[in-house]
Structure formats: structure tokens, C-alpha cells
Amino acid sequence: MNRDELFLPFVSLIPFDNLDEAIADANRSAFGLTAGVYTRDEQELDLFLSRIEAGVLYANRAAGATTGAWPGFQTFCGWKGSGTTGKGGLGSWYVPQFMREQSHTVFDAQ
Fold this sequence. Notes:
The protein is α/β, with parallel strands linked by helices. The protein has helices spanning 19-27, 42-51, and strands at 31-32, 34-37, 56-59, 79-80, 103-106. A three-stranded parallel sheet has the order 2-3-5, with helices on one face. The longest helix has 10 residues, at 42-51.
């Protein structure tokens, strides 16, 4: 499920028994532009930030959980089919400089 990269304002909810299953399902996608999570659990946050395959990550962001990078301040390049051009990362030679490029934005959980 949820395998198409659509630029529309909608929410898709799929239940999972645990965060490992949710991350594994998300990582099966051919795309990886952004991803977000809400959690108060530091272990869950560490698991998400270390295993999700997306270029821009957000945690506990109150609005726009998976969009809203600031061009010019944050790199904004996706992984896999969402980031093959390097257009958000200052040219085609920028992304290969990093083994695992990600931008993390973490807010305190309310």
C-alpha cells in the first residue's frame, strides 16, 4: 500500500503492531522525500531517525509533519526515486559527499 508519490493534501492511515513494522513498510517504497513521526519515547525516536529511508526527517513537528524544509537553510534532497537529480542539494555532486544525508527537525512532544 501507499507506493505512489502523490503531491496532494491527504492523509493515509495504516495500522501497524509496532514501529519496526511501520518503518519496514515505509522503506519498501521506491521513494523517500520526507518522513515524520510523533513520539515521546527516545528509543522510538532514535529507531526512526536511524532506520527510515528518506532525505528530510521531522519529529514532533506540530504543523506539516512531513513537509516544510527551509530551502537555503536545510538540505532538501530525497532518497531513492525522490532524489536522483540532486537539485535541492546544490548540484549533482553534493549528495555523494555524504554516506547518509538527512535533515532532522525535532520538537518537544506535547
